[in-house]
Design a protein that fits this description.
- The protein is an alpha/beta fold.
- The protein is globular and about 50 Å long.
- It contains eleven helices and 13 strands.
- Helix 7 (about 265-275) links the parallel strand 12 (about 255) and strand 13 (about 280).
């Protein structure tokens, strides 16, 4: 296995990880350790090129810096990606090789479950390094973070809807959900229970059919989800989907979901604002998962209370951001970034004392 530093002017550390024996090629990016060790999940996707994987890990790790700070965690931002189809290319040997790369960073980066990974995979990583969270077993094990991520997004949807309409009640509203992975599926369950009507899409046709049956949802093709008539759009798949092509198609008043890096560019946040669509910044709305993971990293004994308190604080942070954006007639995304940078400066100053 080889670990090669990648030069960067935007990140503290980036490494290319390769292992000929297992076919492993991946990247680890540490965007910031200003508030503590970098933390963020490990993602496995069949990227079309190494360049695409590198761009993704850089954007995701930067997003984790903002997400961890917004949640008030003593953690910096990091992320890791492996190039490959998790259903075909993933193996215990490949995961162990990548875990050794993580271990070589000596605790500057903690990983956890993300797209293409499971608690079982985290257990394999933990055989080679202690810098893993999201484990199913152990004294401080936090397990699959997806349900907590979904709960945080559900809270954010209600908060954003209340800011837009004056009521948190989702009963009778139509919500379009893009992506039925672990988080999207859990979110659909919460939304359905709250009385919302769901329009859903996913590339996995079996998962789509199952969701139609269980949630009584209406399914559409992946490229049709943007133009459906709905009250709320909840992106819960890949990033960059809010862009110059998709935003003009939207027929919703609120966008709030679980995908990371939903805006293709900062200008797209302003485009949503100009269109009268209220956007809940993704790194605030989807912070539940890393809160759950942080309880394990920080070895919190009363995890349930810790998570509940942090989720409540995060909901308040979102409400404050939306209020400020309204008063200043700004995009919530721009306000959120300013808010998070101020939080980072404040927390960093407090730690220095």
């Amino acid at each position: 296995m080889t670990i090669t530093p990648v030069a960067s002017t935007t990140h503290e550390e980036i490494y290319r990880v390769a292992d000929t024996a297992t076919g492993l090629i991946g990247y680890i990016a540490l965007h910031s350790t200003q508030l503590g060790p970098a933390a963020g999940g490990l993602r496995m996707r069949p990227y079309s090129s190494e360049e695409e994987a590198l761009v993704d890990v850089k954007r995701l790790s930067e997003g984790m810096t903002y997400k961890n700070a917004a949640a008030g965690l003593a953690l910096g931002g990091g992320k890791a990606v492996i190039i490959g189809d998790p259903g075909v290319d993933k193996s215990p040997a490949l995961l162990r090789a990548f875990a050794r790369a993580i271990h070589s960073l000596e605790g500057r980066y903690y990983t956890a479950e993300d797209m293409g990974m499971s608690p079982v995979d985290m257990a394999i990583l933990a055989e080679e390094t202690p810098y893993v969270a999201g484990l199913a077993d152990g004294e401080f094990a936090s397990g699959d973070p997806s349900p907590v991520t979904a709960r945080g997004i559900f809270n954010a949807i209600r908060t954003t809807q209340a800011h837009k309409s004056g009521s948190k009640d989702l009963s009778g509203l139509t919500i379009a959900v893009q992506g039925l992975g672990h988080v999207g599926w859990c979110l659909c369950g919460l939304l359905s229970k709250a009385g919302a009507d769901l329009i859903i899409t996913d590339v996995n046709q079996d998962q789509l059919a199952k969701a139609v049956k269980i949630f009584g949802a209406t399914s559409v093709a992946p490229d049709e989800i943007y133009a459906v008539q709905a009250d709320i759009f909840a992106p819960c798949a890949i990033g960059g989907i809010l862009n110059a092509q998709t935003i003009p198609q939207l027929q919703v008043s609120v966008v709030c979901g679980g995908a990371n890096n939903q805006l293709a560019t900062p200008a797209d946040g302003q485009a949503l604002h100009d269109a009268g669509i209220l956007y809940a910044p993704d790194f605030v709305a989807n912070g539940g998962g890393i809160i759950n993971v942080a309880s394990e990293i920080e070895q919190i004994s009363n995890r349930a209370d810790y998570v509940a308190d942090k989720l409540s604080a995060l909901e308040l942070t979102l409400a404050t951001i939306l209020n400020q954006a309204k008063v200043e007639d700004q995009s919530p995304d721009a306000v959120a970034i300013t808010t998070v940078l101020a939080k980072m400066a404040q927390q960093s100053a407090a730690c220095a004392k």
